[in-house]
Input
Amino acid sequence: MPNVALVETKISNTDFKQHFSIDFDRFQLCSDSTVKKVLKRDVDINMNPDDYDWIILVGSDAVKYYTKINSVTEYSGKLLNGKYLPIINPSMLAFKPEVKPLFEQSKNNILDYISGNLEETIIRAEQAVGIQDTEKANEWIRNCIDAKPKYIALDSETTGLYPRDGHMLGISLCYEAGYGVYIDVDCFDEETESLLQSLFNQTIVIFHNAKFDIAFFEYHFNFKFPQFEDTMLLHYLVDENPGTHGLKQLAMKFTPYGDYEKEQYDWIADYCKRTGTLRNDFTWDTIPFEIMKKYAAMDAVVTYLVYEKLVRIKRNTQLKKVYDNILIPGTKFLMAIQDNGVPFDKTRLYTAQELMQLEIDEAIQSLYNFSEIKEFERINGKDFNPNSTVQLRSLLFDYVGLQPTGKKTGTGADSTDAEVLKELGEQSAIPQLILDIRQRSKIKNTYLDKIILQLDRDSRLRTGFNLHGTTSGRLSSSGKLNMQQLPRDNPIVKGCIKAKDGYKIVAMDLTTAEVYVAAVLAKDKNLMDVFRSGGNFHSSIAKKVFKLPCEVDEVAELYGDRRQAAKAVTFGIMYGAGPRKISEQVTKDSGKPFSMHEAAQVINDYFREFFNLKKWIDNNQEYIKQNGFIYSYFGRKRRLPNVASEDKGIQSHSVRSGLNFLVQSTASDINLLGAIDMQKHIETSGFKARIFALVHDSILAEVPVNEVDYYIEALQEYVQKDRGVSIPGAPVGCDFEVGDDYSMGKFEKMYGDNL
Output
């Protein structure tokens, strides 16, 4: 029998014999049960790995200690370094039922490895071929064309993340399971390119992250792909959780090749260490072809195998509808708007830098005028650094004498984060001033300074938008600039997004879209009547719910607290807000005390008026509890396995998430589908408008002055198109703003005298 060890972080009550029907020696990284978070210095395990044939590593701490790998979830049930077998901690099963399938599969894999029923898969030389000869490349492509495959997997190796920032090193192809080729682009000739285009014309091309690869292929070779599919988006239909869609992750999950790239990344780490190269400065063209070829070719092989596993998901008609009607058209749309780029005014950016630095300097000067700062520096014998959390903590609580809020850091120290500083600002001007310095410094360092360095020659910034980054289906943004997280309270960054001469920035924003969707899905006539009546929405709601004896346009002035209460309930119900939350929100917004009793009464009055909405909410909550998932109107699936959690808080959060998903995803898809249709119209009509971003419920475009009216009319028509989620006579609301910059004049209003 093989010798087996099991290593956990600390002693626990877990009965591992229940899970593993084998003999093993049990060890702990740390014998001190009082240690909360085990660090390297706390490890006192007395176990020689050479004494064991197999070592089961339970949890992330044990995995990291023995393998230097941070993610136990990715590697759970996989073989590492010939003997180490990671597995997620079974204690997670009680409060996160979603991980039970992974745990069971991992356990079975581990037992199979130990018993000899499962062996490490070795990549054979003939499975991953490298080609640097033009004739051999052309011959391989001809053979592929002659084979007439139904689909091929295609991948690219590049030196950058954006087509304009780098060049292509090679392409990987696979048209039969388990065998791939990597072709160096330096051996391409005209015939190679012609053969490849012929191949792409006759078959379905499978990508993993098509938006990335197609952008490079089109920009550098002008290749076209009449039919393509995307394994990343197919997996998004299977698992909508962000951060789960990487090719390596899917290789670990669906293929026998596991972390096939590890040796290549080990080579990169060694190279950087030997040469003193920073990892961020490393470029892929540094990797020798003989090392690159194996792993690049396997990218295509793995993509092919993953596709064979995931394509079955299209048997689900609802998910197929999402894929065909939203995700694939959305990919083409995002490629277009990413290529359009966000228009920045470089001169204004430099001006904004100077203005922001001036504000920071003035704030710092004001800070040093406080006697407490002077006393701190005198006693400590050094300048006060507002960016030092240790110094800041000492200043606020020891010298200024402020009372800590009770919020702690991960190490147990009193927190000085933005939320805390805002609260402490009620006791002293110093915390608020430090918060202002932090916020302004972040704007300058994170946005203004970096944006200038990343502009293309046409003063546009090309960043990323993602279809797979949220559970709701809303777009996310990443890359050079996260367009979803631009500063809201200061217009300086938005003010630098400026239309060129002869153009305007046009921003369309959906209004109360989620409530609109809820009204339609719930078939609540009373709520739909509010939309039909027009006027101020929240005032109309308040008048209807509370039977107010005034006109709608008088509600805000005469019954401001009632309007605020109605607004809080309207938005709160989608997030499962109860009396306590409503009470707090109305009190905060109105500045007047609003008791839980009043809040409870408002909720009752609200649902008495909109009784079908209440029925719809209750029915869907029950459905989620019973099934652990729910479908949106457009067919997206939200899996909520944690409704089975033993933790009531986790249960209720899952139910609320599911209910919110129903309205948020539908509203988001209405917006996205409208933008997709508008982009198609632009491309077919010769229209010069350029959509450059979708931010939350907004669509942003740079539009010629003489096309603004037409653009607004067309976009409104596409967004308000009846897709089955509409109120007759009252289409979803669209607000338009037109200005020279994205701040819509707020930048000039704030800084005009300094421009």
